[in-house]
Each structure stands twice: as structure tokens, then as C-alpha cells.
Amino acid sequence: LSELGQPSYRARQVWEWVYRHGVRDFAAMTNLPKSLRESLAARATFTAVRPAEEARDDESAKWLLELERGGRVEAAKLASEEGYAACLSTQVGCAVGCVFCASGARGLERNLTAGEIVGQLFALGVADVKSIVFMGIGEPFHNYDALLTALRRLSDARGLALSPARMTVSTSGVVPALRRFGDERLRTHLAVSLNATDDQLRARLMPGAARYSLAEIIAACRAYVRASGRRVTFAYVLLAGLNDTDADAHRLVRLLRGLTCHVNLIPYNPVAQADFHTPSRARVRAFGAVLRQAGIETTVRFTKGRGIDAACGQLRLRAS
Ligand code: SAH
Ligand code: SF4
């Protein structure tokens, strides 16, 4: 709009049409002069993200999304107690390359723009979405600036006005970004995917995350808790025979001692290219019991939407 020589209140008007009224057509923005509507329509489109494929079961739905600028990502809606949680992607592919994850199987293609991150939500339908998790394809902290712009846009009071407290950013543990994020003074939740209790195994499971040691990651998490006054959620994917023993659980307790946190155990969800196994329910319970006995609040997330390949990255992998 400034390129078109328009005053700044025009931007506010367009913003409100798009983010408050959900209008996707310049012609319908009736408080703009007709000539302006026409020049906007000639320069800009609302088709950055288009649904290409959809899979549903009783409680969740997942989409393969085609990006106008090239590439595909996935996003999902997962049923929660109150409405849906939307799971959004932040990159096309992922450079971390976790061996149990379909999203990183072919490396990183590119970062999403803030518009593409937010655009996923519109492609899914925003009306029944009560919370947002950045747990789709990609490492959010490898695309920090676009992520922050998207967070601000989603929570803007003149638009969607989604509370930052209802958003969760999940990271593989990018230390400088963890420190920066704590200083942003957002109310957004932070989840850190640990997945191992020693650096050697972690480097094997999450090759692109090996740059930072567990000690550095935990120290950054402690700093985050101090700076933000918030707790951290630690995600831990349980892989049978690899990281799911009582000894692992005790090491996890030692790592997290004194940290204001919550642990989310995620039994491995089988993906096509990987040869890992899901631990038995009894093993998962025993692992959780060690953490709880040590006073660490622990939940188990039995994967939703197994039937629809809801572990992110699988639709994209299959479709190519
Ligand atoms: N890149 C970010 C966010 C996306 S991955 C991160 O790694 O945190 C979201 C979560 O899904 C992570 O906790 C990851 O460890 C987990 N995950 C990936 N593949 C999985 C699989 N096959 N089964 C279970 N959890 C998986
Ligand atoms: Fe990337 Fe997260 Fe998948 Fe690892 S688990 S490859 S960091 S998306």
C-alpha cells in the first residue's frame, strides 16, 4: 500500500478485512476506492497455500498443502477438549534430519514466509481453531524471524486475536534462539524435543541437532525459565530398546533436576522409511512412573490419527 502511495490507515482496513472478517477478495473490500481495489487485485493474491490432499479420522484431519511459491508442507487439526489445535509447519523439509521423523528425510528445501505460515491456518479453516502448535514440518527456530512475525500476526488484537498463551513452539533445541526467545516476553509456550539423555545417542537420533550439547540446551532452558517466568515442556519420543529404559528415565530426572518443566512422552509413531519400534504400554508407563516419582509432571501423548499418517511429513513423503 505504501508502494501505491496510500496512507497507512488503508493497510489497517485491508488487515481487518483479511484477518478479522476472513475476506479473500479485494473486490469485496467495500470501504476501499474501486480503483485501489483493482490495483491491489492486479498485484496480490490470496492463494499462497492451497489444500492438495486431505486425510481424516474421527478426531483429526490432516492436509497436504501446495505452496504457490513452490514446495509442499503439511498441517493438521487435532481434536482437543475445547475445539481444535492446529498443527502448522514452518519450513519445507527440515535440516535437523532426525532419523525417526519423516519431515527431515530429504533435508531442507526452504523456509516458509510468515504469510505461508499463517496461510496454512486459513487453508484449514480457522473458525473452530482454539490453539496452535508449531509441530508440523520444519525446525521453527531455523526460521526465527518469520516465526516471530507469524506469532505476532496471529495474536494481533485487530485480527485473529489468538492468545499467545494458546500457542506452542516446539524446537529441537537451537541454543541461541532459545535464549533469544526467552527475552521476547511473549506468553507463548515452549517445547524442547530432547529424545535422548546422552549426547552420543542424541547425535545419532538427531544428527542436525548435535551442534549443541544436552548440557548447553538444558542451561539455555534454565535461562529461558528465569527470563520468561514460564515453564518448559520437554518432548521425548520413546523408541523401544534405544532410549526407553529405566536407566534413561533416571538420567532424564538428573538432567531436569530443579527445572520448572513438564515432560511429554511420545511413543514412537511408525514412519515408512525408519526401522524403529514403539515400546509396549507397560514400558511407557514404567518410564513415566520414574519421572513422576521424582516429582516431574509427566503426560503420555499416544499419537492421534495413526490411521491418517498424522506423524507429520508422511503425506508429503508419500505424495512425491
Ligand atoms: N522440529 C520441531 C517441531 C516439529 S516435530 C521439533 O523437533 O521439536 C514435533 C515433535 O514430533 C517432536 O517432538 C518430534 O520429536 C516428534 N516426532 C517426530 N517424528 C516422530 C515419530 N515418528 N513418532 C513420534 N514422534 C515424532
Ligand atoms: Fe525436524 Fe523436528 Fe522432524 Fe527433527 S523431529 S527432523 S527437528 S521436524
Tell me what you see in this structure.
With 320 residues, the protein is of the alpha/beta class. The chain has 10 helices and 12 strands. The chain has helices at residues 8-20, 34-43, 114-124, 144-155, 175-183, 199-205, 214-228, 246-256, 281-293, 314-319, and strands at 49-56, 60-67, 72-79, 84-87, 91-93, 108-111, 129-134, 167-171, 189-193, 232-238, 261-267, 297-300. Strands 1-2-3-4-7-8-9-10-11-12 form a 10-stranded mixed sheet. The protein has a two-stranded antiparallel sheet with strand order 5-6. It is elongated, with a radius of gyration of 21 Å. The two termini are 38 Å apart. The model has no long low-confidence stretch (mean pLDDT 92). It binds S-adenosyl-L-homocysteine (SAH) and iron/sulfur cluster. Iron/sulfur cluster is lined by residues 94, 96-98, 101, 103-104, 138-139, 172, 206.
Q: Major sheet, described briefly?
A: 10 strands, mixed
Strand content: 15-25%
The mean pLDDT is: 92
Determine the number of helices (DSSP H or I, runs of at least 4 residues).
10
Widest beta sheet: strand line-up: 1-2-3-4-7-8-9-10-11-12
Ligand types: S-adenosyl-L-homocysteine, iron/sulfur cluster
Low-pLDDT residue spans: none
